[in-house]
Design brief:
The chain is mainly alpha-helical. It has 3 helices and 2 strands, in the order ααββα. The protein has a two-stranded antiparallel ribbon with strand order 1-2. The longest helix has 13 residues.
């Protein structure tokens, strides 16, 4: 026989616990949010990438097309993980 007490928590979907007033307040709050997409920054020039983006498949570092082409022409590897560019 075990001396431990067993307990559980009943999970109730959030939607079931909201009142109509609370739902309306949430909708109003959501409309006030200013959601922005994160800017992708190039590993080389440290600025935002405005055009074509290359993502290193090994470490997921971001490169703009100009910087990637320049690195490839110089025979360099990824500045983050040092794998060759594909």
């Amino acid at each position: 026989m075990s001396n431990t007490r067993e307990s559980y928590v009943e999970l109730i979907p959030l939607r079931d616990t909201l009142t109509n007033q609370t739902e309306e307040e949430l909708r109003h709050t959501e409309s006030e949010l200013d959601i922005q997409e994160p800017e992708l920054l190039c590993v080389v020039h440290k600025g935002p990438i405005r055009a074509e983006t290359y993502v290193c498949p090994h470490c997921k570092a971001f490169y703009c097309r100009n910087c990637l082409d320049a690195l490839k022409n110089r025979g360099e590897t990824c500045w983050v993980c040092h794998n060759s560019f594909e």
